[in-house]
């Protein structure tokens, strides 16, 4: 400092002023940064979790926060571009043109669609049933695809093409999710690279530079101590295991590899068993629930059960599968980090494929054109006059059921267990003990929910709002659950690579979500009885139709862009 | 900085704050140092008191703040960090120093220390990574070398105001 002071005397006045102003600017910037970090949602909660339970669990919660934000933004996107114009126009502020069916579709049967809204006297019970299954009253709201019947909205002289907006908003939210996830995973990837590139440096880095000298609060200090301890212990354990693995003999290796192959075969067999059961259950549920609804016999409470049967079977499969996998993987003798990855991979495949099988069975029903059922309209119009709403309803049911399960499990399983363990001191109960916080399971739960949301948003545009609320509530439930009913993991798990892995799995879920949405848009003929795409053969046709109305120059450009020669390099970059 | 130093002094001595010395117990009341596991070492390193009671004058206080500020070069920071980590003041970081260092980092309680096997393994790893001349201790230049390649060091060594 003395040197600095001596220096400044020699400088000219201009330079002195520059130096002081840059100093104060730096100070102002750092203060703004400090303030803005307070605005980050749940900053304090996540920080305290990090200290008590390690960075692995903290990464789960920050992942949850990311999903809340993502869903909220998707909801805002869909709402402002699709729902809001319709609501405004229905209140008569703008002129609108309802979709008129062009005479091409003479066959009237295609356009018969009577969702049973609140006609006449309705019991309270049916309200509840409608809420849970998305039929009836809920079916005609803006939640589902069937509400959006308007073709165009006239704002003074400009025409707001609603079908086009619907399609573009769908593409937009998929693209937004993709870009955001990629951006986040690139950051994590860079960290991962740096971390792994210099493994021999990591110990010194942690020990000499580990302490954050800015900590002023004794509580924060305690948290930091604990997280440092966790990290050091994790590293040491992994190193010991790696040494053990490197010292294996040839005979042991052979034994282990053959065991692994055998276990993988078992896993595949179990998976196919699950898929087949989901397929049968979905077909059964669709046939039975449809019949009873069309005949309006909704006082049967078993109907609700039948409707929820696919969700229940899927949830059961999602619950049993990981248990079996984590039991089997113990025989395969991997390092803890790889064990987690392997189990995660299997569970991911299970969950996403479950959704895939459900959708596949739904489509096989919708496009079931065996005995001339879909001659006039291209799809099975008798059972599914508005098939997009039906798919939306299935997604809605899945989401609601998932939410109920996530709420119910802590309430009915963890809390009683905790009470038992703390108050009853008999040996059996103590041996049972508290449950550890299973990160992989929890992450998969939310990725599963998010995939459902992505697929369902095309069919039910307000689904992201439900997802936002759901994740918001889940955060607090999991936090309370963590604090009171779980013990810290016996094996502290490292988070940096897990973070990147979660995002990778989420990306896989997103890409998987592209497939059903893409197929629905481009392949399956859109319902003639409801929705904004009534005038078009498939939903995708809106775009070629709109392009035709552009000036020819622009058309040429767009066709050129769409041609392969341009699109492939564009996507590469 | 002068204001904070004079706040630490008891009332009678405030007029000659420039030449007074603040006892160690009062220095440790500073919020930045209160939670710091290296607080005693920091006081010891920056104190120029002849009586060895680790009290600090205003110059010592200024020195300490300037080393921890953002504008100090990494050379200076690593030099002082080395002196802080050198618990027995012998000019090198040997096993005992490293052990005490790790214990400071992980916390003061009995259950927050690493087991002796883990500690052994950790110290072995650290020495492998940083001890270039393989003499079993880390001297100043080795320390500065390893710290210059560490991405976290520049970030952590800063105090506010």
TrEMBL record, chain A:
Return one GO MF term. mechanosensitive monoatomic ion channel activity
What Gene Ontology terms describe where this protein resides (cellular component)?
A: plasma membrane
User: Which InterPro entries does the UniProt entry name for this protein?
Assistant: CB, TMC, TMC_dom
Q: What is its main location?
A: membrane
Q: Which residue ranges does the record assign to the Core-binding (CB) domain?
A: 1-40
Q: Which residues form a coiled coil?
A: none
Entry keyword annotation includes Coiled coil: no
PANTHER family, A to Z: TRANSMEMBRANE CHANNEL-LIKE PROTEIN 7, TRANSMEMBRANE CHANNEL-RELATED
**Family from the record:** Belongs to the TMC family.
The name under which this protein is listed is Transmembrane channel-like protein
Q: Which organism is it from?
A: Malurus elegans (Red-winged fairywren)
Automatic annotation (TrEMBL), chain B:
Q: Name one GO molecular function term.
A: magnesium ion binding
Instruction: Enumerate the Pfam families for this protein.
Output: EF-hand_7
Q: Does the keyword Repeat apply?
A: yes
**Keywords, alphabetical:** Calcium, Magnesium, Metal-binding, Repeat
Domain EF-hand, chain residue ranges per copy: 73-108, 118-153
Q: Which InterPro entries match?
A: CIBP, EF-hand-dom_pair, EF_Hand_1_Ca_BS, EF_hand_dom
SUPFAM superfamilies given in the database record = EF-hand
Query: Does this UniProt record's set of keywords contain Amino-acid biosynthesis?
Result: no
What PANTHER family does the entry give?
CALCIUM AND INTEGRIN BINDING FAMILY MEMBER 1 (PTHR45791:SF1), CALCIUM AND INTEGRIN BINDING FAMILY MEMBER 2 (PTHR45791)
Listed name of the protein: CIB1 protein
> Gene for this protein?
Cib1
């Amino acid at each position: 400092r003395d040197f600095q002071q001596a220096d400044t005397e020699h400088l000219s006045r201009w330079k002195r002023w520059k130096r002081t102003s840059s100093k104060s600017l730096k100070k102002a910037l750092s203060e703004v940064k400090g303030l803005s970090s307070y605005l980050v949602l749940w900053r304090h909660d996540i920080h305290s979790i990090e200290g008590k339970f390690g960075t692995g669990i903290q990464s789960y919660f920050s992942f949850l926060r990311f999903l809340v934000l993502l869903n909220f933004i998707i909801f805002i996107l869909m709402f402002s571009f699709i729902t809001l114009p319709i609501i405004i126009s229905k209140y008569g502020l703008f002129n609108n043109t309802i979709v008129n069916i062009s005479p091409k579709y003479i066959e009237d049967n295609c356009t018969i669609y009577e969702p049973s809204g609140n006609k006449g006297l309705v019991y309270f019970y049916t309200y509840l049933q409608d809420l849970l299954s998305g039929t009836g009253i809920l079916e005609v709201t803006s939640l589902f695809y069937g509400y959006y019947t308007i073709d165009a909205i006239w704002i003074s002289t400009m025409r707001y093409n609603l079908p086009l907006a619907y399609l573009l908003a769908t593409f937009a939210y998929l693209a937004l999710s993709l870009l955001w996830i990629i951006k986040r995973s690139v950051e994590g990837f860079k960290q991962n690279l740096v971390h792994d590139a210099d493994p021999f440096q990591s110990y010194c880095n942690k020990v000499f530079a580990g302490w954050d000298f800015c900590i002023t609060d004794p509580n924060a200090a305690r948290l930091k101590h604990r997280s440092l301890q966790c990290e050091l212990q994790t590293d040491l354990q992994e190193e010991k295991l790696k040494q053990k693995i490197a010292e294996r003999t040839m005979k042991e290796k052979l034994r282990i590899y053959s065991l692994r192959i055998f276990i993988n075969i078992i896993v595949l067999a179990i998976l196919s068993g699950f898929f087949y059961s989901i397929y049968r259950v979905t077909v059964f549920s669709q046939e039975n629930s449809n019949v009873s609804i069309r005949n309006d016999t909704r006082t049967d409470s078993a109907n609700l059960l039948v409707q929820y049967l696919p969700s229940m079977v899927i949830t059961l499969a999602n619950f049993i599968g990981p248990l079996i996998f984590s039991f089997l993987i113990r025989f395969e003798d991997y390092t803890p980090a790889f064990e987690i990855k392997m189990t995660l991979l299997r569970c991911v495949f299970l969950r996403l494929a479950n959704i895939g099988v459900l959708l596949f069975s739904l489509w096989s029903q919708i496009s079931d054109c065996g005995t001339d059922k879909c001659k006039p309209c291209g799809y099975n119009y008798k059972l599914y006059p508005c098939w997009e709403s039906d798919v939306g309803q299935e997604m809605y049911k899945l989401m609601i059921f998932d939410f109920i399960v996530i709420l119910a499990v802590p309430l009915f399983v963890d809390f009683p267990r905790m009470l038992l363990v703390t108050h009853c001191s008999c040996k059996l109960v103590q041996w049972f003990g508290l449950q550890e916080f299973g990160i992989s399971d929890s992450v998969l739960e939310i990725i599963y929910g998010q995939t459902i949301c992505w697929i369902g948003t095309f069919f039910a545009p307000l689904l992201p709002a439900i997802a936002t609320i759901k994740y918001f509530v889940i955060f607090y439930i999991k936090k309370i659950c963590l604090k009171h009913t779980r013990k810290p993991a016996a094996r502290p798990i490292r988070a940096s690579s897990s973070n990147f892995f979660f995002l990778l799995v989420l990306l896989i879920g997103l890409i998987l979500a592209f497939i059903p949405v893409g197929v629905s848009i481009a392949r399956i003929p859109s319902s003639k009885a409801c929705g904004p795409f009534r005038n078009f053969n498939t939903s995708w046709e809106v775009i070629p139709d709109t392009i035709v109305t552009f000036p020819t120059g622009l058309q040429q450009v767009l066709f050129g862009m769409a041609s392969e020669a341009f699109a492939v390099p564009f996507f590469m970059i | 900085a002068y204001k904070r130093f004079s706040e630490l002094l008891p009332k009678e001595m405030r007029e000659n704050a420039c030449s007074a010395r603040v006892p160690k117990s009062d220095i440790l009341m500073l919020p930045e140092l209160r939670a710091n596991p290296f607080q005693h070492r920091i006081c010891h390193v920056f104190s120029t008191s002849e009586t060895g009671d680790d009290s600090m004058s205003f110059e010592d206080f200024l020195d300490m703040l300037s080393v921890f500020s953002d504008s100090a070069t990494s050379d200076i920071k690593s030099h002082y960090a080395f002196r802080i980590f050198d618990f027995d003041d012998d000019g090198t970081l040997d096993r005992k120093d490293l052990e005490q260092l790790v214990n400071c980092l992980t916390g003061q309680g009995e259950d927050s220390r690493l087991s002796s096997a883990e500690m052994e393994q950790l110290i072995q790893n650290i020495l492998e990574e940083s001890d270039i001349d393989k003499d079993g201790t880390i001297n100043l230049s080795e320390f500065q070398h390893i710290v210059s390649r560490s991405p976290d060091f520049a970030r952590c060594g800063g105090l506010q105001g």
